[in-house]
Amino acid sequence: MREAEERYRVYLRRKLAFGLLLLISLAFVSSWALCVGDIHLSVAQVLKALFGRGDPRSDLVIWNIRLPRVIAALLVGTALSISGCVMQCILRNPLASPFTMGISHGAMFGAALAIITLDVGGAESSGRIFINNPYIVTLSAFLGALIGVFVVLILAKLRDLTPEAMILAGVAIGSLFTAGTMLIQYFADELQLAAMVYWTFGDLSRPVWREIAIMAFLIPPSLFLFIGRSWDYNALESGEETAKSLGVNTQRVRLIGMIISSLITSICVAFVGIIGFIGLITPHICRLIIGGDYRFLIPISAVLGSLILLISDTLARTLISPIVLPVGVITSFMGAPTFLYLLVKLQRR
């Protein structure tokens, strides 16, 4: 008995140590992201600006440009990672994520439709992308994401689709939404077209404090809700019948998980555009290191996803400075090979 207890303590310590290492790394990378850029700032200058004692230039750079960008990376990385983690469990497919299931593309279609039909966003002649009403854009993106989710779930229930077929259905739905977005772009004027095309790249420089507040209002509670249901997800990992025998309402768990994942994904797409593969690769990296216990997998995936996205965005800003690359390009370069590897591994299995 004591030996089993000691093994469990070692089991917990390893996971907590990895989580603590990630948090320290996240703090370090956040500090680095606040310092580097076209205007290099020292750590002392950053700290003075954060506490309101910096010079006007430092205050402007930190509070209007870099700090919103860093916070947006933390929130979006968290949202996409936990969405992918939960979807891979409830759909029983390691390839599931908001991007591969077409949820991001559905949200993109909804946001583009709102931009052109309700005139709630666009681009200025100076090139700045803006949203007049983030609430309408978020709602439209959420509705677009829900359409894709429910189509896949209905097909799965009516035709008893395998997990692999559900991914193919998600890819097909994503292609359909992409075609719809291109059709909308065809009828848009130049400024609306610039806004919609720029949105598809994925860029963390767009959110202002008002939009960051909306993300902060919805994403952290979703994280805690998923953590609170971690035992249900652990039961689902053991199989449908086992979960039901343990008292888990599997249909409700799946429905709630998909709706909340769609909501926080649509918020991210509405404000920063499509950022692919974060939700796919992050949970797999965590599983390789800490295993599949969702009590630890969900929060650690949130931290690791934030770290990966923040590093990617900082590299996008600094690799060929002063040109700033869309962060979606960087994450796609990382995620596409991982997706192919998982696809081949799944086929062999």
Account of the protein in words:
With 349 residues, the protein is an all-alpha fold. Helix content is 78%, strand content 2%. It has 14 helices and two strands. A two-stranded antiparallel ribbon has the order 1-2. A hairpin with a 5-residue loop joins strand 1 (121-123) and strand 2 (129-131). Helix 3 crosses helix 13. The protein is globular and about 60 Å long.
Radius of gyration: 21 Å
Which percent range fits the helix content?
Answer: over 70%
Elements, N to C (H/E): HHHHEEHHHHHHHHHH
- What's the number of structural domains? 1
The CATH class assignment is Mainly Alpha
Structural class: mainly alpha
The named CATH superfamily: ABC transporter involved in vitamin B12 uptake, BtuC
According to CATH, the fold-level topology is ABC transporter involved in vitamin B12 uptake, BtuC
First-last Cα distance: 36 Å
Tally of strands? 2
Instruction: Indicate the proportion of strand residues.
Output: under 5%
Low-confidence stretches: none
Question: What is the averaged pLDDT score?
Answer: 85
**Global geometry:** globular
Q: Tell me the quaternary state.
A: single chain
- Sheet with most strands: 2 strands, antiparallel
Please tell me the CATH architecture by its name.
Answer: Orthogonal Bundle
Main-sheet strand order equals 1-2
Count the DSSP helices. 14
